[in-house]
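Dear colleague,

Thank you for sharing your sequence with our group. We've completed the structure prediction you requested, and as agreed, I am returning the results in plain text so they can be pasted directly into your records. Please verify that the sequence below matches your submission; if there's any discrepancy, let me know and we will rerun it promptly.
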Amino acid sequence: MRKFLKKTMTLALVLACSCVPPIPAAAAAISEESRVQGRVPVYETADSYGDYLEQHASAGSGADTVILKGADYAETDSMDVTVDGDAVQTGTSGEISWNVDVQTAGLYQIDVEYAVVSEGGNDIQMNLLLNGEVPYAQASPLVFYRMYADENQDYKTMEGNQAFPPQEEVADWQKVSLTDSEGYYGDGNGLKFYLEKGSNTLAFQAVKDRMAIRSIVVRPAEDLKDYAAWLSEKQAEGAQIIENAELRVQGEDAWLKSNPSFYPQNDRTSALSEPYHPSYIVLNTIGGDGWKKAGEWLEWQVEAPQSGLYRIAVRYKQKESVGFSAVRRVSINGKVPFAEAEDVRFAYSTNFQTSYFQSVAGEDLYFYLEQGTNTIRLTCAPGGYAEAALELQSTIEELSEVYYSITAITSTSPTRYQDYQLTKRIPNLTQNLAHVAERLEGVYNQVTDITGGTTDVSASIERASTMLFEIAETPSKITDKVTSIADYITALGAGVLTLSQQALTIDWLEMQGSGNKLPRAEGNFFQNVKHEVLSFVGSFTNDYNVATEDGGTQTDKTITVWISTGRDQMDVLRRLINESFTPKTNIAVDLKLVDASIIMTAVAGGTGPDVAIGLSNTLPMELGYRGAAYNLAQFDDFKEVASQFAEAAVDTYEFEGNYYGIPDQMSFPVLFYRKDILAKYGIMVPDTWDDLISIIPSLATYNMQVYLDRESMQTLGAGSGVGTSKAINSVYLSMLYQNDAELYNEEGTKTLLLGEESIDCFETWANFYTKYGFSASIDFVTRFRLGSVPLAIMDISYYNRLSISAPEISGKWGIGLLPGTIKEDGSIDHSIPVTTSSSAIIKPTVEKNHSQNESWEFIKWWISADVQTGYAREMEAVLGSSGRYMVANLESFKQASWPVEVSAVLDESLDWLREIRQIPGSYLTGRNLENAFYAVINDISLDRLDTLAGYVESVDAEITKKREEYGLETE
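Please find the predicted structure tokens below.
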């Protein structure tokens, strides 16, 4: 193998030095393959909704209304469906279509009546196709939300700290107009679609999960009326403005919600919050930082004593987006009544405020309520910020193209005094820079007009515009500003998020008549002083770490659980324990947040917990070697419980037949690639390491490179100061496993890092840096979004970071399996290491307390699919999508809301997972391997084998030392 690799690398190096351009013809020969890897990716973009409307600007609204039953579908393509009465239940893949016959060509809108299928867990995603094509980008995909509600409101009867109410899914029928999931286009009546006269086909293509469809209504398109026209129409119909009414509904009493994470919250910052307590945790608000993504909604029910026109007052807080107003779309009884209800704003302040729902112009809005039960829904929407956000995102794309053209010549780190002759080599460079600057200037004006002043976002836009004007006028400064351009692209991308997402906290809503006054938002001087004094005194007596038990609840036993990850994580876990563990098992839990560094000391001193969760993968083993971790294999149902996880994830915690931990989180490396860049230059997505080497010259031609994660594998969970070190690099480990090599001998008495295959892998790994000039350390997210690194091997956790922080490249990148190694039989081995965090039972504690079974019950509950799914969703709501909790439970892992093409890669990756075996003393392996690696790439004169051997000797010595310490055989 070593000779083959050397020959391959030598050939690639010769090609690189010859600056051979990409060879699209080679890729074309395999472009018909269905699998992305091993071929050039296809990158096609659909027109935007705005472009689509321009294309059909001459078309008027259609004149026909067509009502279709779900069961009357025309055909399916690779989709298994089930018919139940008028409804059809779709499958998780393939297409289902209906025939739509209209007598008048024109623009139509579409309503769908649907219900969720309860076993999924994700919001349903479907692509819409008209006559076999996606009409525009915003129809791919459409999002159909699930509905959730509080299972009960028992928390309101609790004295003292209230526990969060459990959430349950509501599978009722919903009727929605098809809308843009990002909220940028369309209004409450829905997106518009052009239908030809005669027969048309309307199809849904499954992307994520499935649903039941009872009816589809295709109706003539119409825009929402403005408020004045709507009000006049209502009054002409006899609707009267109500003079006196005070119908208050508490925010925490939301009847329905689009996300189970929108549970009631506690706010103790104000004397006027309802219900109020100065020191106890009383659930009195809803929303907060998690309620900000376009399309997510909260809905309340209100009983109107008589039909008529009411104002809606609200007590709220918006303190997250400084200088911006949060925007919500208002729907009454399932409909947005008028255009102004699309953009109801809630101003920024660090305190609570009260206001009426108003138009952007500041006019109080009246809403028509029927006598009896009505619903009021507030949906996150960009409103008036949409146009600025879209223009900014488009401008970022244009600036990125200019940046690509510059760095293809200069690289991302140009030599300061070299004349690259950029204006000669890049046609219209200065004009393009000036054009981007002008567009940014326009966006700046848009944003400041909306906000009424300067914000962080507008200031960043202004600085970027000024810089681009400057270098357009003085091209000699371009090379000095390459890094600055990259920084501004990143900053502007963050601005898009700020423009499109604003959080909002709701205390109460109140339906009022014209004669009522707006209530105060904050207390007076005396109320505030009393509040502060009582809050201060209460802080000494109230334990905020526990919820008050129901007086009628008796528990059989109490166990102590330690968590080391963070305050937010503990708060969510405490809520789940009070919600579903203690009531069902009668086992109380004393949950404590501790620093992982004290665990070993506490256990040695006899003060450890019964259970510790969120531990690194090494800590349970270090406890186990010392006889301090309970062997979980002793439980009769251990194998059944372990079957919920990938075998490799469980085997990480095995030593000599004992299992000292069980996984709760799991992660592994994948290949990230830019579809747009590889497609543009005809470069394949590598399927093997040989493929990767072969495309290096093509990338080098454009000053681009591959990045191999140089950091250790992501460390999940918390470790103590004992037995922790650098994890072994994922690239090296993958190559090692793919070549049937192991880290240690079967007895665990020494390493096998000096075997022939292991040495070959070490040399291959080092050659990427010494022969091909790969960067040892970069800011991956920045370089990937800017395109200078269009291929990278990174941990899957970076998927969410990119999704959130780089909206301007949404849809332009994807993930694939880690490159594999071709075996003798022609198959490709894609083996990859899996890293995990874990839960463990502390043996001395449970044996002293006789709590082994109760502790095992807690662990089984904690790692179950339902709890892990709920916990992951809660953490994502609290920390945002970038803080996604990487569950290890396979059922829960597959319920995460990944796009369908990502899910396919992850599912295939599960088949290639390999454990990172641990033995006494193995904590030095990663550190010494890294030291050897850096030594040989920093000094190419060193003999690699001798250098590696020196560091391996130290590892073997430590293994022997530790085995002797633990009384284990050393030979």
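Summary note from our side: Residues 1-34, 720-724 have pLDDT under 50 and may be disordered.

Kind regards,
the structure core
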